[in-house]
Known about the structure:
By secondary structure, chain A is α/β, with parallel strands linked by helices. Helix content of chain A is 44%, strand content 17%. Chain A has a single domain (3-159), classed as HUPs (Rossmann fold, 3-Layer(aba) Sandwich).
Amino acid sequence: MKVALYPGTFDPITNGHLDIVERALKMFDRVIITVARNTSKAPLFTADERLSLIRDALNHNDRVEVEFFDGLLVDFARKRNVSAIVRGLRAVSDFEYEFQMALMNRKLDEAVETVFLMPNEKYTYLNSSIIREIARFGGDVSDFVPPAVQEALTRKSNKG
Amino acid sequence: MKVALYPGTFDPITNGHLDIVERALKMFDRVIITVARNTSKAPLFTADERLSLIRDALNHNDRVEVEFFDGLLVDFARKRNVSAIVRGLRAVSDFEYEFQMALMNRKLDEAVETVFLMPNEKYTYLNSSIIREIARFGGDVSDFVPPAVQEALTRKSNKG
Amino acid sequence: MKVALYPGTFDPITNGHLDIVERALKMFDRVIITVARNTSKAPLFTADERLSLIRDALNHNDRVEVEFFDGLLVDFARKRNVSAIVRGLRAVSDFEYEFQMALMNRKLDEAVETVFLMPNEKYTYLNSSIIREIARFGGDVSDFVPPAVQEALTRKSNKG
Amino acid sequence: MKVALYPGTFDPITNGHLDIVERALKMFDRVIITVARNTSKAPLFTADERLSLIRDALNHNDRVEVEFFDGLLVDFARKRNVSAIVRGLRAVSDFEYEFQMALMNRKLDEAVETVFLMPNEKYTYLNSSIIREIARFGGDVSDFVPPAVQEALTRKSNKG
Amino acid sequence: MKVALYPGTFDPITNGHLDIVERALKMFDRVIITVARNTSKAPLFTADERLSLIRDALNHNDRVEVEFFDGLLVDFARKRNVSAIVRGLRAVSDFEYEFQMALMNRKLDEAVETVFLMPNEKYTYLNSSIIREIARFGGDVSDFVPPAVQEALTRKSNKG
Amino acid sequence: MKVALYPGTFDPITNGHLDIVERALKMFDRVIITVARNTSKAPLFTADERLSLIRDALNHNDRVEVEFFDGLLVDFARKRNVSAIVRGLRAVSDFEYEFQMALMNRKLDEAVETVFLMPNEKYTYLNSSIIREIARFGGDVSDFVPPAVQEALTRKSNKG
Lengths: 160, 160, 160, 160, 160, 160
């Protein structure tokens, strides 16, 4: 069984992330999404909220697992016998950062491969920080995130 | 009448920004500069100071308006019947970020076009954060910013 | 009256080019498309064919002119009192080449401005050489080019 | 069974290509290498030579097939029930071209996925055209290509 | 005597930095490393620790000096009669930032040249922030930093 | 004595190339310019013309030598005891190609270092192929090339 690992912060999960998960499922039997609890920037959603929004968005799919993980990805990959780390590439700036991370992970454990997938081009413009910004100003994000995330963003904006 | 919108933080305005405004005025009848009051990083100048430094630098030109705006640019663009959002492009890294913002704005309102202008190549090296850094160490910024900005930077540095 | 100049080889014109023309017409009163007769690589279509395919694709629009031009763009721009040269930007590689051309044109005539527009993101993958390649192998290009171009490509492929 | 398609010109195959094949074999059960007979530039090696050098380099591996193919990759992918097209990414310039091709292939057939793999960083500097250049001047390419390719390059250089 | 200036934050110094110093020593008679005491982000190591770790790593070499410096590099360069500022280039994103800094320094003092060197490609993936991240999770960084830095990182991680 | 090697096609030499030579002379005692006789594209000027135009442009400087060289640069560098190969960097696209060449040269001979210099930003837009294009259409290139090159371009254009 081929297992892929899709790590991230997911603050919050977007349709672009979901698009990558679906593509990974074409090639792998199982995808494990790991959510980083600690992030260098203060996240909008708590770790529990972020995990729960992902589970909501994917609840129909028993080939996907969602878990917390903070630590070295290569440790997780080894322990869970992961075939590859999966990452989405949208733009040149993605490419350089992802390349560096992938090379470093390979250095730490040669057996851990990284594969890059390309989201639908309509998600080229999409990232979680732009979504948070639009929602903050009451913009309509229904095309970019699953319904539960949209509601969660609205709740946050009204509180904030 | 063709109106262009030139949004930014302008912390502070530089000769590179002014160069873009002048180029926009060749193509548009009117340019509205909007100053974002809130920025993700703590600005050196208050919103009032930033707006007032722009007005000083442009006071000879009644085809330019300067205003505060925090919110979705597409809302502003629609309300004020703006023909295009204007942005300066200096380098590849600019390009990717600007591209993402422009695609997102188009997604939010298809009628809002973004046009990119190229500043004079002598401003390729120029951005507000480098200017603040140089001024902090007492470097001469008179070639890069209008005189009023230079004085304001000197006052800040002496206080700081 | 604001006139834009949109120069190119157009071998052949694609929906991506047409998208740029439409965006330019939002900002300018008139667009002149100039077709370079001579190109560094042997074109698939003759200059007459390329011009005639553009005219076909745009025949409904009397705000667009199509002409041959070989020479310095700045000479044409001056003679025809053009407000700006218009170019589409899709990717980083576009950006660098276009930047160089625009800076050079500005050096040759400071009055000639270049503005960059962003095509619909669904045309990010599109360029004339990929279109020719797909048509050569009998692929379906009907989503990417106007109908007359599609027919012309089919005729060429059958002959070739 | 998961099958990957690895298309190219391979003029000639290098250790960088072989590195990608090995990585693909970790994730896929089978890799089909297709060699483009016709290339836009005159190749150094004939199509038969290129194919035969690949077979030599891989003869120990019965999970890899090598074939000629000229045409639309998506047609081949469909016919052979391929799970993904595999491409190596070394640098930003690779990225943009590969992205365009992958988006176009997806447009032609949504079922055809492209995955990008990263070669060992010691192959970042490596491409077939540099190899041909070095061999032409009698440089030592033994670190960059399999032994049979090295001999073939020496024979070509002595003839040329 | 040709003197090079190698400025940075060095939080902490890595084998990639040391590689650049060695390359600079092939071309220059002397290299002065300046350590910025103040950084925009909170450093992991104090300024004194960062300086002392560099001295440790280089103590065998009397052609290298290590000093604190906060201020305009061009002032330091002039005062110490430096022939060139030396910077390492690993990737496109490095390039753009470094280019901007170098152009700005040249603007502030035309006599100050910047030269760019390329580290060994095995350090392409390497930067201080990735090193800090790996060490934080107990990963093995012995291939990437000198032994004294490794120990210092372990001490920090255990405390943190 | 520190010797730098500055290789190229120089079809023809521009003020941008001369700018790099001058910067190299600040750091090296001597610069050897090597002119590639054979180029992948048909050059506008013969090898003899290209060499002679460089000599003209530099005749006041006895610290610069100009020679033909076709072959592996590392062979030349070793034979002539060169400290470094010098290359100008203007843009991201330059960067990637130059990086590849420099890594390959280092692979072929570890002792051969490449240093990158940045031309004056007013030469960012400048390359020999744009110069040839402008001259072909009778444009004024006097700001971009030395006088002898300008005359030679005019002679070529009138003949062509």
